[in-house]
Amino acid sequence: GQQVMQIPQYQHVQEGEDFTTYCNSSTTLSNIQWYKQRPGGHPVFLIQLVKSGEVKKQKRLTFQFGEAKKNSSLHITATQTTDVGTYFCAGSPPSGTYKYIFGTGTRLKVLA
Amino acid sequence: ETGVTQSPTHLIKTRGQQVTLRCSSQSGHNTVSWYQQALGQGPQFIFQYYREEENGRGNFPPRFSGLQFPNYSSELNVNALELDDSALYLCASSGWTDSYEQYFGPGTRLTVT
Q: Nearest by CB to A48, which of B35, B99, B105?
């Protein structure tokens, strides 16, 4: 079945450093979403990417969807302590059912 | 705050028992998805309901069942609980639009002993 992997599993950065997490699907996706989950919290929607090669920015966050629609990345510029949490990608297969498969997540710690 | 509520917050059950978890969708949302999140892992899709009909199911056995009501609130029922069912159960509501944002509730923490 479809699998979605993320690397790295963990990342510790100094405040002000950049951070990138990569998401790879075993199959082509219809679209991909990114979520952030704070410790003890629930996933919070960040963004959805639909088009091949799409790039979207939200302040310090840059999201990319690969040309083959099988991979994606999230890049955070100049991390802040408020960026702490686990970042998940979630991919939907092109079957129209919107059955989202979540990635394994990248846990980010930011050291002040 | 998403407007999606879940009850109860925490629950302790014994192996073999049955449990019902509840979710109230955000106003205007007609689709709800249920996820199981084990500690340290990503949410796993259980199933989705759209306008009271099941609209997709993940790799979960039939003892996981659900309902969606006319007001779009939803229930997740799990029969014959197993120890491995211990997890955070999340529901997510969304509107059936091009931007399929999912709004998650706070979850129900289920412990099976």
A: B99
